[in-house]
Amino acid sequence: MKIPQFVQEILQKLQDDGKESYCVGGCVRDLMLGRVPEDWDVTTSALPEETMALFTPRAFPTGLRHGTVTVGNGHQSVEVTTFRRDGTYQDHRRPDTVQFTRSLKEDLARRDFTVNAIALGLDGVVHDPYGGIPDLKNGLLRCVGDPDCRFQEDALRIMRGLRFAATLGFSIEANTAAAIRKHKDLLNKIAVERIQVELWKLLTGKDAVRVLREFPEVIGVFWPEILPMVGFDQQNFHHIYDVWEHSLHAVDHVPPVAELRCAALLHDIGKPHCFTIDDNGLGHFYGHAAISKDLADVMLRRLKCSNEVRERIVRLVDWHDREIPRTDKSINRALRILGEEELRLLIKLKRADNLAQAPEFQGWQQELDKAELILNRLLDEDSCFSLKQLAVNGRDMMALGYQGPEIGKVLDRLLNQVIDGELQNQREILLTAAKK
Ligand code: ATP
Ligand code: MG
Q1: Cβ partners under 8 Å of residue 52, min gap 6
Q2: Pick from 263, 272, 270: which is nearest to 233 by CA?
Q3: Which of 52, 153, 256, 336 is the most buried (most CB within 10 A)?
């Protein structure tokens, strides 16, 4: 197992100073799984001020109260945290006090899951007092200690648990899973920003769908809007799954891009709110995309998503059920509103939505192939679908005598005419048209 040079140097320097030091947490877990660790954490018997003194001027007191010093070398940084024991918890998130200790075992005891509580020394010796290695081998996520206590102490661990299960592809051990369900409502105590971070990671995990399927009631704590989907019978021959299962299959069929996965999860969330049955006993959901869009907007605002991310997901949900005719004109129009990147995401979403329907209706894939071919060709041909690409600009319009908001209006109209094939995107032609 290879610890990178810059981390080795930190471990060594602490040892040379007579302190214990180990890599710990996610980096050791990922190393053992043959994955590339994202960040490196070191745990040490050195007190924070000792670490600070040892690594000045490369040491930064990023979390002294919890014993954390960040040691950087310009490119990379490592969090070096003093062995600690957490005191009682009152806010279900952060310990009221922490006590530094000289015991590695005590430090490992405060960590959330056994697979995150393994320490690795410079000598290659692994310290695993809570059975993380067998759990890693068996693909099991298990709390260190009593799960009931651990989730009550810090409810963020509930979301971390689901996230690790999804990203590592692990099962959640039975007692841990039961405690997650039992204490799920404590998620209300957790900052939504934290929940959002974990949710995005969960959604891009390879086993996101399995975890969502197993724990809808946990997601339902902050997003109760999903619960009516679960088990909602569509009563329509296009569908072989209820709304929730259909949505999960859609999630499964899009690539692991958080916005796309989220749009797939929410695209039909409005369905239970507009269900009707016709005289033949067939279920319909007229106008569901607009309701889904509004619900998605509220849900994403609640999680305090960035405007950019929220607007994109909402647009994808809004557009998921619109037919985009396979013509240059309509693809250009879609390009104008969505841009290339988002239109490609939309096509992926539409594919997934279709693949999650009854198999006999999946012939629609060929129509999406056609749309994609047209899209590629238009982009190859440098087709004009935005004001930036138009052969005239605002200054040209001013030269013709247009003023203020008129300028934008004329340009818009010219662009629409170009997109619709009524005018060619050539300067002289557009200037002549603008004069009229
Ligand atoms: P990632 O791959 O996301 O970095 P990680 O396991 O390294 O996963 P971090 O948030 O970087 O997660 O935390 C590093 C280590 O600190 C964890 O492996 C775990 O041992 C401990 N830890 C982090 N958050 C908690 C928590 N809320 N409760 C208990 N231990 C935690
Ligand atoms: Mg980490």
Answers
A1: 59, 61, 69
A2: 272
A3: 153
Give distance in angstroms: CA of 116 to centre of ligand 2.
9
pTM, entire model: 0.94
Q: What are phi and psi of 74, to 5 degrees?
A: 95, -50
Residue whose CB lies within 8 A of the most ligand 1 atoms, among 36, 41, 135, for a mutation test: 41
Directed axis angle between helix 174-182 and helix 156-168, to 10°? 140
- Rounded CA gap, 153 and 157, in Å? 9
**Reduced to 3 states, what is the DSSP secondary structure of residue 82?**
strand
**Which ligand lies nearest the alpha carbon of 84?**
1
End-to-end CA distance of the chain: 74
Collapsing DSSP to helix, strand or coil, 399 comes out as: helix
H or E stretch covering 248: helix 243-253
Residues 141 and 113: beta-carbon distance below 8 Å: yes
